[in-house]
Amino acid sequence: MNGEGKGRFLVVAAIAASLALVVAYLAAGGSSYEPAKTQDPCKPRPWSEPEGLQGIAQQFSLSALDGAACELGVSRETLARALATPQSRERFSKRYGIDDAELARAIRAGLLRAIGDAERAGALNPLLAAPLRATVRQIPVDQAIELIKDARSLLNNLESFLGPAGGLIEQFLP
Amino acid sequence: MSPPRPRITALTVAVGLVLADSSIVVLALPQIYRDLDTSVAGVTWVLISFNLVMALAAVPAAHFARRIGPGRAAAIGLAVFAGAGLACGLSTELSTLIAARCVQALGGAAAVTAVLELLPATVGSERRAVAVWATAGAAGAALGPALGGLLTELVSWQSIFLLQAPIAIAVGVPVLAVARHEAATGIVSTELRRTGRPHLLANLALAMVSAAIAAALFLLVLLLIEGWRLSPIGAAIVVSVMPLAALLGARLGPAVGSERARAAAGAILVAGGLGSLALLPHAEVALTVPPQLLVGVGLALVLSALTETALAGRAPQAIHGGWTISARHAGVAVGLIVLTPLFTADLAQQRHDALDASTAVVLDSRVEPLLKLQLAQRIEERLEGERGKVPTLGPAFEPLPEDPADRADVILLREELQDQLDRAATHAFSPSFGLGALIGLLALIPIGLARRVDL
To answer: Are A88 and B380 inside 8 Å of each other by CB?
Structure first.
């Protein structure tokens, strides 16, 4: 092979090697190796099959978070982190320009959505849904803020914020 | 004067030493970043300043070498390089370090361009001198990060600079003999005459390819250390694939002969390697090896071919060598200046996306709600505490629950979270690697045009 032939061979070999590697990495999923995208909180999220009160409470809380996040125009994940501590809540309020009243209204809207989701999923008897809605609507703003401040109870124990209605849940669970 | 063999070694080591300096601190940057309490953008100026000053000073330094004699210029250059290296090693502030790096680049520019004037008499021909000079430069640039990483891990980042001083002095000894000869005879060995135009297209291609190579070295090291949490020595071992491949590329070069073909093939391989790094399918060290092989072989082919093209038939060699040094370092500096903001913005965005993805994993996990919130809080604290670095999440999960079922759930959750962070870290580098690949491909335009216009 003369010099020019060797040169051409080298260029062709370089193209082939480069393309082969790029195609191999693409085929192995290189174009989609990125962090999972968060879901739009305004879109309904299907309920998994919850087990017992604890499971329903979890689903309920997640639906409430989705609903509140949708109201505030942030992701469910951002709101969950904001509710973790008073400091994180303060950072969140400053960053997004959201005051406590707005946050309380959003949480209330989220709770109403969670009741609806639970009802549609068959996890909550419609007979219980109506008084629950009334309870949530009547929660005073300061109580809603207290509820938000103790975010753990929101996720940990649904009954604590449903008040007297909470005791009925066990009876109305499907 | 010293016999040729030690002198050839001294001259090639001098070139390799100076040109390795454009990349040698890459693996030390994370350590410097922490020790000197600066920002990612600030610490990159340790690299950028050296390359920028080399780019600006190379041609004037070549004129200086021709005016006072290459032996004397090389000796002075190496002495300045050594002294500034000591100053770098003793720096306790970023501003002092950057200033010392600028002085180091001035000395380096004088030494490297003067060596090109000294080599023909030592190796026997101008063509061979150019090949030796170009290969020494490419080897230095490729070896730099690995050597810097080893020294950072085994000793400290300061040792990189402190060790350069004795090496510069050692290689300066044979050069001093030439300088003494010049002083004794009172003649400057090279005739002062008008210089021809530099080879614009070859130098432009050299600048573009150098920008792409800088992207490969700089970004890969940051990905390994900051993204995948490798130690500097671990990263040094990984990136040593590139210089090893460059050795292979350097052996391929002479077998082919045609500079255009070598330059084109080299640019394609560099672009292919960078393109593959932009498409890594997992956060797996082994997956960086094939792209590094391409970049390593490619850089050896393209840098030597373009340097030889830029110098072929042009005199004086020191001036045109100065132009190639200027082009290479300008490419590196511009590449870093363009890529750093892009990369830091991507990293910030990916960090945010990773945080959201991690929180989603926690919220949707099977662990207890109370533990979920505690974990979310601890993860946020770790992310805040790492100043933008991708964190190791292990400590956020300590202590693990005692109940075996809960423990299994938490361990599964930890793995899922770490996967999200690895994805985010890897993905953050993709656009910058992609841009590097594009620059490498664009270098084919001046390489192709050079065929019609100038060769």
So the answer is: yes
